[in-house]
Amino acid sequence: MTWGSTSFNHEDSVDPELYFTAYTSFFHKVAKVKDEPIESEKRELTVGEVQQKVKEYNAQINSNLYMVDNKDGSYTGFIKVHFQLVRPISLPPPRSHSLTQEEDQQGRRMTRRTSFYLPKDAAKHLHISSETRVREVIEALLNKFTVVDNPAKFALFERTEKQSQVYMRKVSDDERPLYLRLRAGPDETVLSLVLKENETGDVNWDAFSFPELCNFMRILQREEEEHVRQIVKRYALAREMMKRAMARITTPG
After folding, report:
1. Do 146 and 116 reside in the same domain of the chain?
2. Pair (146, 237) in one structural domain
3. 80-139, pLDDT tens digit by residue?
4. Global pTM?
5. DSSP strands (E only) in 107-226
6. Closest C-alpha to 198, from 152, 134, 158, 167
7. Is 4 part of a structural domain of the chain?
8. Are 178 and 128 in contact (CB under 8 A)?
9. 181 vs 78: CA distance, rounded Å
């Protein structure tokens, strides 16, 4: 696997759902992200179909990130993975050169990890083969940034847009990202690959250290408080608009 440069694209986050029974009368409805399956073709491509698909793919791109097909039907190419991580990743502590040999032998090296937030919507190009699986891609991405977190804490998603709706599908560990890229073509509105935290229901919380779990609890507390503030603000705004409307109504008598 080889790497490309990191790029950054800042986008406004989608507002949470408006918790008000008549919000359609007061607020603009926003596009929602739906976790729904994306239809994908199950049948494997023949060697001839792969060659044709690779040719069509290369004709559509505006860079030198071409796919290359081999006589046996395998192929290599680039995928672009977007990072959408809301929690910090763990990096190993810097190695200390001041430790004595005795301390080293006694295993007194510091085990504290450094937490680091990746920039929003960072992206990385990765050169892989048609046989590279999702789990290998995740491990390679973490190794690139020297992340020491368990790869099981992360998952790869495919993102697509249809009629102003954004759909996300979790890609299973044994799927092949380059195959998905070839089938969809280079247009990222048709399909893009996103690395996110694993879904809560699938996370093995026992894999986290005690300090990490404490940090997550603090983050969840802040997220909850912010969410409550947003809801209270919307209700207050709705009440104020109602009061103004009532004041404009001419009362009888």
Report:
1. yes
2. no
3. 999 998 888 888 877 655 555 555 544 444 456 677 788 877 899 999 999 999 999 999
4. 0.60
5. 114-116, 122-129, 154-162, 165-171, 192-197
6. 152
7. no
8. yes
9. 9
